[in-house]
Amino acid sequence: MRYTTLIFDLDHTLFDFDASVDAAFAATLSHAGVDQPNGHREAFAAINLGLWKQVERGELTPDQVGTLRFEHLIHRFGIDADPHAMAADYIAGLGAGGDLYPGARDLLDELLPDATLALLSNGIGEVARAKITRLDLDRYFDAIVVSGEVGVAKPHGAIFDIVFERLGHPDKATTLMIGDSLTSDIRGGIDYGIDTCWYAPGAPADASSGATYRVARLEEIPAVVAGR
Ligand SMILES: [Mg+2]
């Protein structure tokens, strides 16, 4: 095996995050009395993206994002609701719904006998833990590190330090970071001095990433790991 330690991102890499967001957001709006959403979902996506970029820059903590995104949404659309209640509703919904991408569990099952796996997620602890438990992911990973629980996020080296510490300091030369985000997963891996595999199912063919490898399908990852 070319790589014997694999660090996986969760959302948009193994987990179908968009489907879980759609369901949780629709339920949250409905509970807040917004029965005919009109641009709310798109606006929420943009608000989220901006706030998580601020987390990557160290300007916000992941847990601050939980309520702030609904404060922004309420302000933007003049919704008469409590942002804390909406945030709690949404977080409960996010943890309760959604599934792995087709093929993701098969991938983990295939890799597990030959490699040590870690999960490294930028997200809210409560949401990540609910998904991990519900989807029985604990059994695959020797370390599960969620930014909201440790107070530091990808791409910062401090969160990779925590992963390496929990794994007993594996060799960086045989460790691979696998994820969809260039700014958190790939940037973080490069800066930490490990090889990276960019999971980019929809990216343009000429998109430059700096990643060591690029795959469009999860099924391609075992060949990368094996060095074939
Ligand atoms: Mg991701």
Brief overview:
The chain has 228 residues and is α/β, with parallel strands linked by helices. It has two domains: 5-16 and 99-226, Rossmann fold, CATH 3.40.50; 17-96, Putative phosphatase, domain 2 (DNA polymerase, domain 1).
Tell me the fraction of residues in β-strands, as a range: 5-15%
Number of strands: 6
The topology string of helices and strands comes to EHHHHHEHEHHEHEEH
Estimated radius of gyration: 18 Å
Biggest pleated-sheet summary:
6 strands, parallel
Structural class: alpha/beta
CATH topology of the largest domain, which one?
Rossmann fold
Distance between the termini: 9 Å
Question: Which consecutive residue ranges, at least 5 long each, have pLDDT under 50?
Answer: none
Strand order within the widest beta sheet: 3-2-1-4-5-6
Oligomer: single chain
Number of contiguous helices: 10
Report the CATH architecture of the largest domain: 3-Layer(aba) Sandwich
The CATH class of the largest domain? Alpha Beta
Q: How many independent structural domains?
A: 2
**Helix amount, in percent?**
40-55%
Structure overview:
With 228 residues, the protein is of the alpha/beta class. The chain folds into 2 domains: 5-16 and 99-226, Rossmann fold; 17-96, Orthogonal Bundle (DNA polymerase, domain 1). 49% of the residues lie in helices and 12% in strands. Strands 3-2-1-4-5-6 form a 6-stranded parallel sheet. Helix 6 (125-134) links the parallel strand 2 and strand 3 (143-146). Helix 3 (62-77) crosses helix 4. The longest helix is centred in the first third of the chain and has 17 residues, at 40-56. The model has no long low-confidence stretch (mean pLDDT 95). The structure holds magnesium ion. Residues 9, 11-13, 179-181 line the site of magnesium ion (MG). Magnesium ion is lined by residues 9, 11-13, 179-181.
